[in-house]
């Protein structure tokens, strides 16, 4: 296999990175400010607070404020960004597999033993835990993740011109995914959130990291301004043509597939390794947990996959209402969410994530 450019040569997996345990630096104290921010409790057990225009989970807010002030970006950092439940886990697996493809045989890859979130840390949570030193201990090039909108990213990420990859998804499926994920977080004694209530909160923008439309638009506009630095992907396009997206990702990351790799089927191997069915079937993703204190097991990241599950949750009127909001918000931006493709595929049943 041909030698790869530097970005793809040397990222060690998280398993060998950094020390475990709390950061000796005390996290900055922002609690007074946080208690004054507007609060939404409808997604209990999550509490979300409106901070700089977006609803951020309270449990990570202090970490995010700390990160905004103190995160030290490196020019070769790569960021995986998304509105939650839009395909983050998949994109993490793909970028990590692409970047490390010459270090590990794909049939013995670390992604077969650990969840993708372990290789691409969620920065806000790391800061909230007081473990920022773990990020500093990672060797370059790092792949890092946050659900923050573009306007709330630490300034250094923008000023250093780091590469950003954003994935968006049909808001109707994002809502359905969030609805199930959130209900799994609830203790048994708590009634599930009724879907109609989740729908209302989502439409109002009162949803973790919402409003979704502003979140998506900020990255879309930045991708139009700086296409060489910001890659904007759609989950439905990833489902529709994984080889094209995987090649596009590798090019953007600075480590395109060589003709030999393409001939050897490396692209297809990566797609298979990161596919929904493969990831869901792995023991670590059936029973494992990201951290002992995390309430959910890893299987909560692999629910159903695919596009169109909103049909099983929403009336046509609800879907039309949500689509209308999306159209109005995106009007004039040049962004569409390929409703036609999804519609067409949905008439033949849901579009399923590839095996
Ligand atoms: S999170 O919690 O924000 O990181 O969640 P996120 O990964 O963004 O979104 C979860 C949804 O993505 C689906 N998923 C996948 N789809 C296709 N291929 C792969 N490999 C994959 N991995 C996860 C997952 O099933 C969630 O969607 P729903 O609709 O709930 O099934």
Key traits:
single chain, 355 residues, alpha/beta, Rossmann fold, 4-stranded parallel sheet, 3-stranded antiparallel sheet, 7 strands, 45% helix, 8% strand, globular, disordered N terminus, binds 3'-phosphate-adenosine-5'-phosphate sulfate, EC 2.8.2.-
Secondary structure blueprint with pairings:
Layout: H1 31-36, E1 39-40, E2 48-51, E3 54-57, H2 58-70, E4 78-82, H3 88-99, H4 116-119, H5 123-128, H6 132-137, E5 143-146, H7 155-159, E6 163-168, H8 171-185, H9 195-204, H10 212-225, E7 230-234, H11 235-240, H12 242-252, H13 259-264, H14 266-274, H15 276-281, H16 283-287, H17 316-330, H18 339-347
Helix pairs in contact: 3-14, 12-14
The structure holds 3'-phosphate-adenosine-5'-phosphate sulfate.
What would your notes on this structure say?
The chain is of the alpha/beta class. It has one domain: P-loop containing nucleotide triphosphate hydrolases (Rossmann fold). Helix content is 45%, strand content 8%. It contains 18 helices and seven strands. The chain has a four-stranded parallel beta sheet with strand order 5-4-6-7, sandwiched between helices. α3 packs antiparallel against α14 and α12 packs across α14. The longest helix is centred in the middle third of the chain and has 15 residues. The N terminus is likely disordered. The structure holds 3'-phosphate-adenosine-5'-phosphate sulfate (PPS). The site of 3'-phosphate-adenosine-5'-phosphate sulfate (PPS) has 22 residues, from α3, α8 and α15.
């Amino acid at each position: 296999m041909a030698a790869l450019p530097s970005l793809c040569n040397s990222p060690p997996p998280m398993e060998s990175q950094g020390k475990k345990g709390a950061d000796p630096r005390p996290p900055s104290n922002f609690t007074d400010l946080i208690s004054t921010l507007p609060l939404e409790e409808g997604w209990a057990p999550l509490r979300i607070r409106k901070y700089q225009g977006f609803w951020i989970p309270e449990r990570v807010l202090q970490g995010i404020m700390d990160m905004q002030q103190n995160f030290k970006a490196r020019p070769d950092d790569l960021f995986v960004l998304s509105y939650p439940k839009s395909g983050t886990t998949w994109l993490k697996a793909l970028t990590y597999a692409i970047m490390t493809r010459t270090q590990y045989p794909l049939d013995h890859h670390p992604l077969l033993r650990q969840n993708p979130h372990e290789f691409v840390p969620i920065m806000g949570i790391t800061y909230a835990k007081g473990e920022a030193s773990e990020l500093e201990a990672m060797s370059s090039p790092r792949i890092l993740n946050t659900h923050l909108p573009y306007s709330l990213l630490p300034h250094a990420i923008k000023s250093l011109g780091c590469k950003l990859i954003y994935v968006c998804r049909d808001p109707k499926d994002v809502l359905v995914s969030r609805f199930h994920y959130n209900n799994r977080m609830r203790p048994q004694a708590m009634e599930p959130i009724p879907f109609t209530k989740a729908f209302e909160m989502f439409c109002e923008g009162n949803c973790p990291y919402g409003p979704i439309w502003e979140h998506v638009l900020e990255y879309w506009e930045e991708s139009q301004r700086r296409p060489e630095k910001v890659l904007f992907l759609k989950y439905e396009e990833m489902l529709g043509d994984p080889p094209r997206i995987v090649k596009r990702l590798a090019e953007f990351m600075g480590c395109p597939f060589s003709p030999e790799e393409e001939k050897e089927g490396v692209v297809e191997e990566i797609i298979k390794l990161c596919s929904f069915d493969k990831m869901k079937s792995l023991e670590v993703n059936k029973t494992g947990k990201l951290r002992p204190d995390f309430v959910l097991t890893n299987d909560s990241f692999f629910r159903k996959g695919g596009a169109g599950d909103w049909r099983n949750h929403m009336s046509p009127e609800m879907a039309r209402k949500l689509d209308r909001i999306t159209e109005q918000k995106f009007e004039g931006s040049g962004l569409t969410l390929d409703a036609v493709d999804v519609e067409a595929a949905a008439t033949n049943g849901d579009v399923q994530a590839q095996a």
